[in-house]
């Protein structure tokens, strides 16, 4: 019970607007120093999605998805035509020639499948990579927002059931990230 009260008291002090350290004594003869802190939240998914960087990344990812889909459709059409041709040749050429062609066709199918599977795996990592790069570039900006609000923690809004609007800095973060990073193309090329 005492631990519960201590935790509650520390949580209340954490939201206290006082900027100096507070000493709490829970009747056990051991005062506890509690530094006030504030928790800010951000909707990281929305910040990424609505930022210029995120919009550029999403457009590039969609373009890559469409290219892979177009390649898959092209390969499917070509392989279907080649398979139909092989089927027609089955009864018109010697068996050893047919087997050689069928084996070559199977090898071609397996090679294409491996290449397209590799592209699909790489594609699946594109969003993860873009998010990681976004956070890397945004980290100094988010740190400045923390300092400006005299806060010590920035967390994802989705981790909390109830959040006061004044604790959410998503709009502020998007505006600053857009102003300082933009689409991120300059950062990606290493230019200033």
From TrEMBL:
InterPro entries in alphabetical order: Chaperone_Skp, Skp_dom_sf
Region forming the signal peptide: 1-20
Keyword tags: Coiled coil, Signal
Domain of life: Bacteria
Organism: Donghicola mangrovi
Alphabetized Gene3D superfamilies for the sequence: Skp domain
Protein known as: OmpH family outer membrane protein
Chain segments annotated as transmembrane: none
Keyword hit for Hydrolase: no
Regions annotated as coiled coil: 54-115
């Amino acid at each position: 019970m005492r631990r519960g009260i201590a935790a509650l008291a520390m949580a209340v002090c954490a939201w206290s607007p006082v900027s100096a350290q507070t000493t709490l004594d829970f009747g056990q003869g051991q005062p506890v120093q509690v530094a006030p802190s504030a928790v800010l939240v951000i909707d990281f998914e929305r910040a990424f999605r609505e930022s210029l960087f995120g919009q550029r990344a999403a457009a590039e990812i969609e373009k890559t998805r469409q290219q892979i889909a177009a390649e898959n459709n092209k390969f499917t059409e070509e392989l279907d035509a080649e398979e139909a041709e092989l089927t027609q040749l089955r009864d018109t050429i010697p068996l050893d020639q047919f087997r050689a062609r069928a084996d070559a066709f199977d090898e071609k199918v397996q090679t294409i499948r491996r290449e397209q599977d590799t592209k699909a795996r790489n594609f699946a990592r594109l969003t993860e990579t873009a998010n990681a790069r976004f956070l890397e570039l945004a980290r100094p900006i988010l740190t400045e927002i923390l300092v400006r609000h005299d806060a010590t923690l920035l967390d994802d809004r989705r981790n909390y059931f109830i959040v006061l609007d004044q604790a959410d800095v998503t709009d502020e973060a998007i505006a600053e990230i857009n102003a300082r990073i933009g689409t991120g193309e300059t950062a990606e090329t290493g230019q200033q």
